[in-house]
């Protein structure tokens, strides 16, 4: 397959909203610390990176989006935004596991990626495994001696090194996200706009999954 043109990629799995556009390398990058207010920023960031790159949206050849695991609300914002653009513009779309992008950005292919899940739980993503929800007190054992990329977490949970790895990963995340997206596109891989879903791992309290539909329950956990 011929190399794709400029790719626009968005990741909203962490407290940062990350948007990048580029081909072999990023041409425009926007990273904002937004806490859980991704919806207030991501469209403005898309305009920002296109302007920085000197591109219009109709020059973008394909789209990519981080699929988590991560913030429930953040992932919904990122997926909804990118899928809407893909549908409206008829553009190819690829999902990129945010944990894979963070791992590559940190330069630690065997690392466990850990991000908060609510007030006390954590999402854990280890290479070659589906991400899972880890209850309080079980995290150190679940990491199992691997280097950890502890995103949006204090140093007293998994140590100073895990936080340093996360800081390095977030700094390099735009380039890693773009590179992974291009690898999938160059391999001829794309995702169905209607079927691409994020790796929620666990839904918010009170929400359950039954027969592939969302319903209500008193408390998931």
Architecture overview:
It contains six helices and eleven strands. It is α/β, with parallel strands linked by helices and about 220 residues long. The chain has a single domain, classed as Nucleotidyltransferase, domain 5 (2-Layer Sandwich), CATH 3.30.420. A five-stranded mixed beta sheet has the order 3-2-1-4-5, with helices on both faces. The longest helix is centred in the C-terminal third of the chain and has 27 residues, at about 160-185. The termini are far apart. The model is unreliable at about 210-220 (pLDDT under 50).
The counted number of beta strands is: 11
Going across the biggest sheet, name each strand in turn: 3-2-1-4-5
Which structural class best describes the helix and strand composition?
alpha/beta
CATH superfamily: ATPase, nucleotide binding domain
- As for the CATH topology, it is Nucleotidyltransferase, domain 5
* Main CATH class: Alpha Beta
- Mean model confidence by pLDDT: 88
Largest sheet: 5 strands, mixed
The helix/strand order is: EEEHEHEHEEEHEHHEE
Features:
single chain, 221 residues, Nucleotidyltransferase, domain 5, 5-stranded mixed beta sheet, 4-stranded mixed beta sheet, 11 strands, globular, disordered C terminus
Fold blueprint:
Elements: E1 7-11, E2 16-22, E3 26-33, H1 42-53, E4 62-66, H2 72-89, E5 92-96, H3 98-106, E6 112-117, E7 121-125, E8 132-134, H4 139-143, E9 148-150, H5 155-158, H6 160-186, E10 207-210, E11 213-216
Parallel strand pairs: 1-4, 4-5, 6-9
Antiparallel strand pairs: 1-2, 2-3, 6-7, 7-8, 10-11
Helix pairs in contact: 3-6
């Amino acid at each position: 397959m011929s190399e794709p043109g400029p790719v626009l990629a968005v990741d909203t799995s962490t407290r940062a909203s990350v948007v990048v556009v580029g081909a072999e390398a990023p041409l425009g990058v926007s990273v904002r610390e937004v806490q859980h207010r991704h919806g207030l920023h991501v469209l403005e960031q898309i305009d920002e990176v296109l302007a920085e790159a000197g591109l219009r949206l109709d020059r973008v050849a394909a789209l990519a989006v981080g699929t988590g695991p991560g913030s429930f609300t953040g992932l919904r914002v990122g997926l909804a935004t990118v899928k809407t653009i893909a549908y409206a513009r008829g553009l190819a779309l690829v999902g990129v596991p945010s944990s894979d992008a963070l791992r590559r950005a940190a330069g630690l292919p065997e690392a466990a990626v850990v991000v908060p899940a609510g007030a006390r739980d954590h999402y854990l993503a280890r290479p070659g495994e589906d991400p899972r929800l880890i209850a309080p007190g079980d995290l150190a054992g679940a990491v199992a001696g691997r280097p950890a990329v502890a995103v949006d977490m204090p140093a007293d949970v998994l140590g100073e090194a895990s936080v340093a790895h996360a800081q390095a990963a977030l700094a390099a995340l735009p380039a890693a996200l773009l590179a992974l997206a291009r690898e999938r596109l160059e391999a001829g891989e794309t995702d169905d706009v209607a079927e691409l879903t994020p790796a929620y791992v666990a839904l918010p309290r009170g929400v359950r999954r039954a027969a592939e539909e969302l319903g209500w329950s008193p408390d998931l956990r």
